[in-house]
Design goal:
Elements lengths: L21 H6 L21 H22 L10 H11 L9 H14 L1 H6 L8 E5 L3 H16 L39 H6 L13 E5 L4 H9 L3 E5 L2 E3 L2 E3 L2 H10 L4 E7 L11 H11 L3 E4 L7 H13 L4 E5 H5 L6 E5 L2 H10 L7 H42 L14 E5 L16 H25 L6 E3 L4 E4 L2 E4 L12 E5 L6 H17 L1
Parallel strand pairs: 2-3, 2-6, 6-7, 7-8
Antiparallel strand pairs: 1-9, 4-5, 8-9, 10-14, 11-14, 12-13
Helix pairs in contact: 2-14, 3-4, 6-8, 6-13, 9-10, 10-11, 14-16
């Protein structure tokens, strides 16, 4: 016999919280209705009062942990301050501009009415002022954010399908020949919001004027896939090398913004990344986005555990424009995979993200986070953060020692990147260099790259066989095709990084004994390699 939510209730609908298995019922604490409603993942559900209260409590707890634990600014800006802000701004104008005072006031008011998001983002609101919990991984959460911005930047959905369009990027359509877009879904009307919303989150969206995302290159597949899942096009912003570090190329970002300013939906930056990549200069990018009136999204997947990164995000929200920040639940709060948190200085941004979620959501990730936050408390979370910080210097010393023992060196990416650390693997003398007869130079180079990857991959396999997980072995000149983009030097976030290398993370939850055992096994693997 199936379980009903309560013996007092009789269910006459198609979804009434019925659960067949007692084990499943127990595993979910009877919260079978999930969270939110089909029209809004953050909306209260009348027949699931417990889940609704739990969602609100969990959101307040996690925002408190992000503010008082991680150090993100939670300052809010009230809507009532809009008029006062405009008046104060007008009072400070020079006498030479008095003639245009009325015109400027009307212009400012219209801009604020039409672009509420810009007001909040450009006036110093905190990155943790508002938030929404999503039962989605970080990549799918990013796709939802971009879909929200896509709709805000393109309010007119209907296009004339009898006309041709040339909205493809130069790489997609080098000859700039007109094409007819296949962008319509025929929908037999059924009055359920979920199905209609799915047509706006896939690649079936009408070809629209603003359809480009500028993406500061980070060699993680999820973010790139999130852009295409939102029905948008991605233009990669190349990175630069500074000593060992791979950094943001601000000049390239500025040039691309100027070139595609009329078509850019958003700029996506990253603040948590594998060495030698360091966090993007989101404060400088925020200034560019504010100048160009372009939304700015920050992928802060596991950056909450780093105070320096959180200070950088705080600064970005003060000096420029930041529309949304997304962070992972599992990486930052030690819960199972499956949830993310979207925060923003702008309350309307998080509201719109919640409203675009198609269907009702599972409450399992939220319940996991709620239990964990109550279990650790703020003091417990702070202890985890402080322990990680204390281990950083020891982690660097041990990695440097192991690297030097094997005639390598540690990559210098600290303090910009204080989570992921790398060491060189310049082991060319171990790679087979026997060219086959009758090979062209190009074929010989391809064979060398394959041999390179194979040999370095063997080291990764040796570490895994010793029960070491989480390390990354990145050869030079490796190539990967993702979503129609070809990335040379994939893994390093740069097309010509000069070293093969190995990375390991001093991440939240790592203990001293576990760290010491890792370096013993790493030393053993390098000795046998």
């Amino acid at each position: 016999e199936h379980y009903l939510p309560s013996p007092r209730w009789t269910g006459a609908g198609e979804r009434e919280g019925r659960v067949y298995s007692p084990m499943v019922h127990s595993r979910h604490f009877g919260l079978a209705h999930g969270m939110g409603r089909s029209g809004d993942v953050a909306e209260a559900q009348p027949k699931a009062a417990g889940s609704t209260i739990l969602v609100k409590l969990t959101l307040e707890l996690v925002l408190d942990a992000m503010r008082r634990g991680s150090g993100l600014n939670g300052d809010k800006i009230k809507i009532n301050n809009k008029k006062n802000h405009i008046q104060n701004q007008n009072r400070n104008k020079n006498q030479n501009q008095i003639q245009n005072k009325n015109h400027n006031q009307n212009q400012n008011k219209n801009q604020i009415q039409n672009h509420d998001n810009e007001y909040y983002c450009n006036r110093g609101g905190g990155p943790a002022a508002h938030g929404v919990i999503l039962p989605l991984c970080t990549g799918m959460g990013m796709s939802l954010i971009l879909s929200t911005l896509r709709d805000e930047r393109n309010p007119n959905k209907i296009t004339d399908t009898t006309t041709t369009t040339t909205t493809n990027t130069e790489n997609d359509n080098p000859n700039n020949t007109p094409i007819i877009s296949k962008d319509i879904v025929l929908w037999s009307r059924i009055d359920q919001k979920s199905c209609l919303k799915t047509t706006n989150t896939e690649n079936n969206t009408p070809i629209i004027r603003k359809d480009i995302v500028l993406w500061s290159r980070i060699d993680q597949k999820s973010c790139l896939k999130a852009i295409y899942t939102a029905g948008l096009k991605c233009i990669e912003v190349p990175t630069s090398i500074q000593d060992d570090k791979v950094i943001t190329n601000l000049q390239a970002m500025k040039d691309l913004l100027q070139t595609h300013s009329q078509r850019v939906v958003a700029v996506v930056c990253t603040t948590s990344c594998f060495a030698p990549r360091v966090p993007d200069q989101v404060d400088e990018v925020a200034k560019l986005c504010q100048q160009m009136n372009v939304p700015h999204v920050i992928n802060n997947a596991y950056g909450l555990q780093c105070r320096k990164t959180c200070k950088l995000i705080n600064r970005a929200c003060v000096v420029g424009r930041v529309d949304a920040i997304i962070s992972s639940m599992d990486k930052n709060f030690l819960v199972p995979v499956g949830g993310s948190i979207v925060t923003s200085p702008n309350p309307k941004m998080v509201q719109n993200v919640g409203k675009l979620y198609a269907g009702r959501a599972s409450s399992a990730p939220m319940v996991d986070l709620f239990i964990t936050l109550l279990s650790m408390g703020l003091n417990g979370y702070l202890r985890l953060l402080h322990r990680r910080e204390r281990l950083i210097s020891k982690f660097q010393r041990r990695l440097t020692h192991v690297a030097q023992k094997h005639n390598q060196r540690m990559l210098t990416c600290y303090p910009e990147n204080s989570i992921s650390f790398g060491m060189t693997l310049d082991l060319d003398h171990l790679i087979s260099k026997q060219p086959q007869p009758q090979q062209t130079k190009e074929e010989e180079e391809k064979e060398m790259v394959k041999a390179n990857e194979k040999d370095y991959t063997q080291l990764g396999s040796m570490l895994f066989m010793r029960c070491v997980s989480g390390t990354r072995v990145v050869p030079t000149a490796s190539q990967k095709d993702i979503c129609g983009h070809t990335f040379v030097g994939f893994g390093s976030s740069h097309h010509s990084y000069p070293h093969a290398y190995l990375t390991a993370a001093c991440a939240l939850g790592l203990g001293g004994a576990e760290m010491e055992e890792f370096f013993v096994r790493l030393d053993s693997s390098l000795s046998d390699f």
